[in-house]
Amino acid sequence: MLDDVTPTAGLRSSRRSLLRASIGAAVLGVGALPLLEACAPAAPAAPSPSTPGQPTSTTHGPLLTFMPFAQPGLKPDYHVDDTRYDDGYDNYPQQRFKAVADAPGSGGTLNVLITNYIQPPTPYEQNPTWHFINKQLNADMRMNIVASPDYQADLPGFAKASYDAQQVIMPLGVEDPTRGYNSPTAFGKGVVADVRVNDGLVDIILGRRPFSDYDSLVSDWRTEAGDQIRTEYLQVMAGH
Is residue 36 a contact partner of residue 11, using CB atoms and an 8 Å limit? Predict the structure, then answer.
């Protein structure tokens, strides 16, 4: 029972196991806590920050090169020295940014197929915002807006492809022994601890941090909340 809820129990495996589990979690869309231990050489250190407005060096193969946004005289109200977060503004900037000098369109028609997950917009004929956007684009943009269930149903082989994907993903899952039990810490400071460790794992996978940082990520998580969460779960499980 103790091993079932020990954060790092039974997880000493290879780098391949770590990446496989991480990819599985990403496909499922769940922010699973990365409680995996692996042995591998340290990844190259992340490149040093570049000068604002200049592209950073490309060291991650097919990954896009990050170019920070910078405009003289435009000062954000909220800023952190972390490229994962955009600047924040309390009010819409009075100094407007113009990305291109001329309208990108050539006066033709642009047909767009888009999936809709919320209430559909006002039709084009009664939508002044849509007309304004078309004027700025110098194009007659017409959107074919399809409700999400209809969009997926119309995709050839969608149901079978979704089923086949689940058959591959499900065997990678691990049953959660804490299901049905409550830990106050898990839904309190544990939420913040989870975000920090998951952000750190993403940084390692993308090469922004060395692989050697993994052990400290897990250790920090356990100190901040993990060990207390484990204790609470063991106590409540012992009473059932």
Answer: yes
